[in-house]
Design goal:
Helix content is about 5%, strand content about 35%. It has one helix at about 65-75; strands spanning about 20, 30, 35-40, 40-55, 55-60, 85, 90-95. The protein is built from one helix and seven strands; from the N terminus they run βββββαββ. Strands 1, 2, 3, 4, 5, 6 and 7 form a seven-stranded antiparallel β-sheet that branches.
Length: about 100
């Protein structure tokens, strides 16, 4: 089996399952979703509000500013695909919990 062509079923996280956890006054710029378990390991599901500034996709200007570092670490080569939650646009990051 070619691992790169293997696709899991779509995971749908309803709008009401996301908690607003962004900076004070801009709580909507970062959302925390339910814990996702992958092979018995818990993962954080976080969503960062995205916007377009000068034809470039960017994190919301009043957000945490974390997505640039994450994007660089993942060797991003173009705009991230996004989801819509409560009529806002977000990029989703999934990362394992720490010990």
């Amino acid at each position: 089996m070619n691992r790169h062509n293997f696709t899991l079923p779509t995971l749908t996280i309803p709008d009401d399952a996301w908690d607003e956890t962004g900076p004070e006054g801009y709580e909507h710029t970062r959302l925390t979703g339910p814990t996702l378990w992958i092979n018995d390991t818990p993962h954080h599901v976080e969503a960062y509000e995205m916007t377009v500034i000068k034809d470039e996709q960017r994190e919301h200007p009043n957000g945490y500013g974390e997505t640039h570092e994450i994007y660089s670490a993942l060797a991003g080569e173009g705009p991230w695909l996004t989801i819509e939650v409560r009529n806002r646009t977000y990029a989703v990051i999934i990362a394992p919990h720490c010990d």
